[in-house]
Input
Amino acid sequence: MSDILMIVTAATSLTLKDGTEHPTGYWAEELVTAHRELVAAGHAVTIATPGGVAPSVDAGSLDPSQTGGESRAREFADYLDAIAGELATPRAIADVDAADYAAVVLPGGHGPMSDLAFDDATGRVLVAANEAGTIIAPFCHGPAALLSANLADGSFAFAGRRLTVFTDEEERTGGTGENTPWWVESRLRERGAVIDSAAPWSDHVVVDGNLITGQNPQSSASVAARVLAALAAR
Output
């Protein structure tokens, strides 16, 4: 079985366009689904955050209106309680060697827009993992972290790569709306990524070599399944 690195945001808020703070963190469904499926398949998951700060769940992601009902909200909350020890003591991304892991998984929530997108340590790990052909699997807002991956000449490590991400349309209609400080999909396009989007809120996964991306929370299980299949094929 393989060692998997899960890079998680440590941000607790996102500064919106009007200067107000929007409470955030990681999205429960995304972290829970990926962690649970990988561990159930026998893989070991190491959680890492900027500075080794314990990550916070976005409270909205445990609201039954967001999870699809009370039972799913309890399911996610119970799983987070079960791995509370891991969440309380993450590794610092700066201390991580990408060569130690067979895959790097990055769940979303708006948090990555505050920290991972600008984190040099995250960028170093992603560049090294990509150069080694390691599986890299960000989904929903997780692909914001790819923006930190710059090569020595300043160019974007994932320019020309085909991927999907929480779309600008989804952000406008079900995210932070027109008060969004910057648009992840648009920024990735500007840096040279080739964005492949499906209908809003549909389960959509894009695979481009070692890069596996998912569009939104609805894609969480499919991303995990693709990562497991990619690991099994190695």
Remarks:
- The helical segments are 28-40, 64-67, 70-82, 84-88, 120-132, 168-174, 184-191, 220-232.
- The chain has a mean pLDDT of 98.
- The chain has eight helices and eleven strands.
- Residues 3-232 form a domain with the Rossmann fold fold (CATH 3.40.50.880).
